[in-house]
Amino acid sequence: MRLITWNIQWGLGMDGRVDLARIVDHARALADFDVLCLQEVSDNLPELKGSGGEDQFAQLAALLPGYRAVSGVGLEIMGEDGATRRFGNMILSRLPVCQVLRHTLPWPGGAVHSMPRVLVEAMVMAPFGPLRVMTTHLEYFSDEHRRAQVEAVRAAHALAHDRAARPRQAGTGTYALRPNPCSAILTGDFNMVPSDPAKARISAPFEDGTLAFLDGWSICHGQDPHPPSFCIADQTYGSPHCSDYVLVTEDLKGRVQAMRYDTDVRLSDHQPVVLTLD
Predict the structure, then answer these.
(1) How far apart are CA 251 and CA 238, in angstroms?
(2) What is the rounded end-to-end Cα distance, in angstroms, of the chain?
(3) pTM of the complete model
């Protein structure tokens, strides 16, 4: 099973051109991916640099017709004309998707800049069994927001463990049971460097036995530092550093075969990350 995560900056490359087709083409060249997790997907936001206001959720789904497209909209607002404007994440999976959950993350006050954020979760049937794939994009400008959002991500994961430990009564229709695995992959742009205490908190053990998250890079490369995934070509937000990660629950550690960052491509201000599970 191969997974790619990528903050695509609504398809805006370092050449100033928005082109989703080349994003998809490059992802295909990186790996024959089963799951593609994307952040910063836009719809009807022509004020974004280079954007014509396209519905990128629909465009990406059309570019990958063999994949189930799952949207995770964090920001949904209405313009003066009443039209909906959206910004958020996507999961595109050619593995069967059985269930989708969307978790609204905390959005406190007090930040200089901030926007609503979301964790989108798709339960897929991986070759080795059911698996929850989660992707998110945490707040950049506020450490307070990021820390609160990390706790919410952990809480959503712990609730999945509780549903597995205490299965509900079987029903029909909307109450029908679906697979509820404890195993999960967590991906996204966390907007924090590897040494940030909030990054360590994501992988902290749970008191109730919920499977902890492990960093895929550390599983494969030990103490080697994470490659930079942000600010390589544009240092507006600092010097090159890593802010994009793929974590797996500890039961999947033995399946992690490879993980790599593509630090050469310039189709976004972030770099794509590829995880291979055996």
Answers:
(1) 35
(2) 7
(3) 0.97
Contacts 24+ apart (CB under 8 A), 218-221: 219/248, 219/253, 219/256, 219/259, 220/256, 220/258, 220/259, 221/259
Between CA 220 and CA 197 the distance in angstroms is 22
Q: Is the Cβ–Cβ distance between 181 and 129 less than 8 Å?
A: yes
Element (H, E) at 24: helix 20-30
The packing angle between helices 56-63 and 20-30, to 10°, is 40
Distance from C-alpha of 189 to C-alpha of 202, rounded to nearest angstrom = 13
Residue 104 exposed, middle or buried by CB count within 10 Å (0-12, 13-18, 19+): exposed
Length in residues, the chain? 278
> Using an 8 Å Cβ cutoff, are 90 and 48 in contact?
no
pLDDT digits (tens), the chain, 278 positions = 999 999 999 999 999 999 999 999 999 999 999 999 999 999 999 999 999 999 999 999 999 999 999 999 999 999 889 999 999 999 999 999 999 999 999 999 988 899 999 999 999 999 999 999 999 999 999 999 999 999 999 999 999 999 999 998 989 999 998 889 999 999 999 999 999 999 999 999 999 999 999 999 999 999 999 999 999 999 999 999 999 999 999 999 999 999 999 999 999 999 999 999 99
76 CB neighbour count, 10 Å cutoff: 13
Task: Give me the long-range contacts of 263-267 (CB less than 8 A, separation at least 24).
Answer: 263/227, 263/228, 263/229, 263/232, 265/26, 266/13, 266/14, 266/15, 266/232, 266/233, 267/8, 267/11, 267/13, 267/14, 267/19, 267/22, 267/23, 267/26
Write the single-letter amino acid at 129: G
What's at 200, amino acid-wise? A
CB burial class (10 A; 0-12, 13-18, 19+) of residue 115? middle
